[in-house]
Design a protein that fits this description.
The protein has a two-stranded antiparallel sheet with strand order 1-2. The chain has helices at about 10-30, 45-65, 75-95, 100-110, 120-140; strands spanning about 5, 75. The protein has about 150 residues and is mainly alpha-helical. Helix 3 (about 75-95) packs antiparallel against helix 4. It is about 65% helix and about 5% strand. The longest helix is centred in the middle third of the chain and has 23 residues, at about 45-65. This is Membrane protein. Keywords: Membrane, Transmembrane, Transmembrane helix. Pfam families: TctB. InterPro entries: DUF1468 (IPR009936).
Length: about 150
């Protein structure tokens, strides 16, 4: 599959990503009341986090432009697409076959994203992920999710 190579440093692209996320978050919480430091509104704390995240983004972007840092490795589309398909498989299956089988299906699809992954590793990961997810979402949080069909 095709590879894309980005020019520039990893810090520059991470800084730009953090700035983009900050912008999306600001747009999302812009309707909330900010208030003051003494009388905080519902949007005060998210806004503080957005400012901190944007600050990190600016620092990283400037650092990426001014210094020589790690170059970005080529991006291969195959793993990205397979992981995306694994999320879609989980979303389509979780209501039909239950949480445990949907997790196994997601892990099975995601297994093919890397040539280095061994089937035994994926099986073990699927078992651990299914047990932890069942325990947290159904056992602790009492979410109305079917475990099995």
């Amino acid at each position: 599959m095709k590879q894309f190579t980005l020019r520039g440093s990893a810090d520059l692209y991470l800084g730009l990503l953090l700035l983009f996320i900050s912008g999306v978050m600001y747009w999302y919480v812009s309707d909330l009341e900010i208030g003051t430091v003494r009388r905080m509104g519902t949007g005060f704390f998210p806004l503080v986090l957005i400012v901190i995240l944007a600050g990190f983004g600016v620092i990283l972007a400037v650092r990426g432009v001014l210094t020589k840092s790690v170059r970005v490795a080529p991006i291969t589309l195959r793993p990205l697409l397979i992981i995306l398909v694994s999320f879609v498989a989980f979303a389509l299956l979780v209501d039909r076959v239950g949480l445990i089988l949907a997790i196994f299906a997601q892990v099975a699809v995601a297994h093919f994203a890397s040539d280095e992954t061994k089937p035994a590793q994926s099986l073990l990961f699927g078992i651990v992920l299914a047990l932890l997810s069942s325990g947290v979402f159904v056992g602790l949080l009492n979410m109305p999710v079917e475990l099995l069909p």
